[in-house]
Every structure is written in structure tokens, then in C-alpha cells.
């Protein structure tokens, strides 16, 4: 087995030969720049001055008192520029692409948050940007489509397959295979072929680095649990990474169960998938007995993906992280709950993690601390949630 | 060594590609037989995959149609078993790594041997990952076919040295599909291969006319044609066999003239 980019048995580089030199070039460039002082100085300045880092670790007092159990902190990635954690990775990758002499960024997007972040970074750094988005998602996230166009990006609606995130990833890979010389594929999650899972994790690890120092400052100790939603798993791996060695910190990834893990309308990969090879990696995937990738479903376009990043698959195998399914209904309830309780409208993706906190915090002692990563803000979801509740509100 | 070398013995090989089960397996079977009657030297059989990331729109659509029609790996194995009664030329499967992995690699590859498949082309299994299936392919005598792309550069000799069966030379960047012009400097790629191996080279991606096939076969040892045939089948559906046979005949003729 190729040892490169493996997390246990997961990961690897299962991609067409046409792309091999492109990922090798990317890996070499990343290894050259990741410890480069100048690169890191530029990236830190972008993260701080442009994206607004560090993000706040907010004590959710109302929520804590209302639930009556563990103390709840929210890691406010929703307050970043462009409204989600996606910008952390995009600024890193776009800066890296620029150093590699690339002039064009292509990206897939589900909810549109990664697409918006990519379009934003491309505008800032003077690069061309094309975003691939499933046709179904362009409908449920129409506002983000317009936002990307406003930022100067071209948005390509992907009609193949189920017209969702997995098809957007496939189409971006196809586009990259046709044009690698001037183009960098800015992959948005901690998935795909090596070196992407490592690069994305490293750029997102700023989340757990900050949580760790912020919670030590506020509470003088580490949290008992860190919760994050998981699709491909970039905000989750970013939230977990610096706690992996701290074995007393429970790491909990919240998957999108859609209408329930006993239905076919689910995207909960750990709960319903099995080992497979897809989109450049070995990991867990929702699939049928012949290995055909399942048409998954979640109310959240950002979690509507049939796989999970290889490092999560390995954390699951090792029992180091737990992965729990959260349904549409639970997520929507959490979306409304946080809006009313704390005056914060969370992304429907992040609401999956909140839902699990709402479920488990009451059963925990008051001296326990949980951190929930609020990966994004929910403005983009308002119309969809209204529709879910039967109100005909259009973007 | 499998039978694949026979396709290239003292001739330029014409290699048609079919998406199995588009629009149904009977049509695939009759098209393969017609192609072989009209001179196909090796047959590439695609097992459809839900998310074929190396394919252009034509073969993507064929994959979708075939899966919607209910085709499965097991049904394709049964079809190949029957085909083997009529077809003597080498046959290879083209599919994606997950189709093999998920079925159980041992079960899939030993099954290939049993039904008379000679090789396996997996576009998402590059040199670095070939150990995933190579030991089983060697165990059962199935050639795991390697690919070389216009971007392979310094990787060509490494890939060529260990290649089995034949080398699949990808003519152009991007995905499968017909192209009006193929601009890659295939001659220099094949020159590097020849320095490292005596393995036959067949060129695929973008070939749709007898002129293109002739030109590619002239540079190499054979031409692979996929999308152009899949499009004929899309158009003529279950009546496609005679049209496909005629097309293959013309391509063979074009290659013979060169």
C-alpha cells in the first residue's frame, strides 16, 4: 500500500494519471512553504487583518442556563469574513497557489460557503475563479450564487448525477484534469487525494489552536468535549486537531442524518456507509452493494456528501472520535433555538452540532465544559428553513 | 502474460469501448460481436459507475442510462461469460476502483479470470496505488493496464517499465470525449516508452474518425475509440449492432491504409 497521505488504511491518491504530477507539484510546494517564515507571516496577516481572526470563543450563558447542564462555549467561526470557517483554508490555499505561479482557482461548493470564500480570496489576490455547484444546490442557495458572481467568479451549474456536492467535486476534478498548468484546485474540505486532507486540516487547525488557548484563559483547563458538524469534515478536523493527543477531551462529529439513518434520505456516512474508494481517497462512503455511490440527502447542502475525510475515518477506527447522526428536524429545531436563545442565527450545517449539544448538555454535570464550533452563520439558510416550516419565502 | 499481446501481433490494434448495459446487455452483446466480426482486435468493456470522474458527458450519460436500466457487476459477468462463446479476441474491463474494491477485490479479479477477461483498466488507480489490486491481478493472471497522460513527463519511464498487457496512452488533457484535433506530442511520449519497454502502446481519448485512428495507430500500436461508439449506441439504441459493425469496419480500413 502507498504509505503517502495515509491515515491508518484511509487516504491515498486514487486519481487519474493526468492529475498525478499536479498533486505531486502541490505537495512539494506545500512542504516548501508550510514552514516558510515569509509565507506564514503573509498568511497570518491575511487571517487576522482580512478574515478577522482570532474568532471569539463565546460563553453561551442563556443556552447553558436554559439547558441546565454542561457549560457551553461557541467557537464563532461564523464571525469570520464571508461568514464561515471556509475562509481559513481558502486564504492558505490561494496564497500557496499564487506562490506556485497559478493564476486561476477552481473550486467545488455545496452550500456555497466555500465557493464564496474562494471567490473572495480570488478577488483579493487578483486571480481568476470558477466555482462548480450542483444544480440542486444553486436552487436552494441562490443567494450565494449571486454573491459569487458579484465577487467576479464564474459559477458553473453541475447537472450530472444528483446535482449536489459530490457531483460538483467530480466536475471540478474533471475541469482540473483538463487544465493544470495555470489552475489550482482549491478543495474545500479535508478530503480528496493526498495532499489535500493534510493541507486543509493544517489550514483549519487554527480553530483548535485558538480554542485551546482561549478556553485555558477563560476556564484554566481543557474542555470535556468538542463538537462540530461533519460533511467532508474540514471544520471538524480543524476543531479536533490540537485535542487529538488530549485523551480526556471527547471529540464528537455530528453527521447529517437527513430524514433518519433508517431511511434512504440520509448523508450520515459513518452511521450508514462502508469502506470504499472515491474522489481520490479510501474512506467510508454511502454506497450500494456494487459500490455505486448513493444519492445522499440532507437539508444542509454543505453536509450533503456521501463520504467523509480520511482522517475522520481513521479517528473513528481508532475510537478517538465519536460520530453521531443528527436529523433535519433536530437541526432545524437547533437553528431556531439558538436564534431565539442567544440571538445568533447559525448555519444549518453548524446547527447539527448544536442539536447534539442540546441533546447531551442537560445530562452532563454543571462543571463540565463543551465547545461547539459554529462553523458558519445562517443568513444563507433563512429562506430554506422558512420553506421547511411551510412558509413560502424566496431568496 | 495474458492473451492481450495477441491483439497487437503483426498488426495495429483497433480497440472499441462499450458501456455495458447501455441501453441493455443484449445490445452490448450484439454490438461487441458485430465489432469483432468487423475487425476489432481487443474489446474494452466499461462497467458503469455512478460517478465516473474521468469521463466526458457522452460516457457519463451512458453510465447513467445503464445504471438506471438496472445493470450490475454480476449481470455483466454473466454477459461476458456468454460472450466468450462467440468472441475469441482479448477483452478487458474498464471501471473505477470502487467497483472492484466494493465487490471484494479477490472475488472480482478471480471472477475476471473465470469468465475470460484478460485485463483491467482503472483510471482512478495511478502507479502509486496499483498495489491495491496488483498482487491479486498477478495471482489470477489478469493484466492491470497502466495509463500515461500528456502530463506524465518524468513518470513515463517508471510507469512503462512495470506496465502489463498494453499501455493506454491518453491522447489529450481532460476527460474522454471526441476532439477535432489532438495536439499532444504523442511521438515523444511513445519514444520514451520504447526506450524503457517493448510493451504495445494504444492511444485513446478523442479519437472518432478513421483519419484520426490511422494517425494514432501510425504513431503507436493501436487506437482506442469510446465516445464515438457510445454515441452511435445512444442514437440507434437496441438496433445499434449493424451500425457499430460498419463503423468498426471503416476504422479498421482507415488504419490499414495508413
Q: If you had to describe this structure to a student in words, what would you say it looks like?
A:
Chain A is α/β, with parallel strands linked by helices and 395 residues long. Chain A has 2 domains: 156 residues, 3-Layer(aba) Sandwich (Rossmann fold); 214 residues, Rossmann fold, CATH 3.40.50.1100. Chain A has 16 helices and 14 strands. In chain A, strand 1 and strand 2 form a beta hairpin. In chain A, helix 2 runs antiparallel to helix 4 and helix 5 packs parallel to helix 7. The longest helix of chain A has 17 residues. The radius of gyration of chain A is 19 Å and the shape is globular. Chain B is an alpha/beta fold. In chain B, strand 4, helix 6 and strand 5 form a beta-alpha-beta unit. The longest helix of chain B is centred in the last third of the chain and has 17 residues. The radius of gyration of chain B is 17 Å and the shape is globular. The mean pLDDT of chain B is 96. Chains A and B meet through strand 2, helix 1, helix 8, strand 11 and strand 12 of A and helix 2, helix 4 and strand 5 of B.
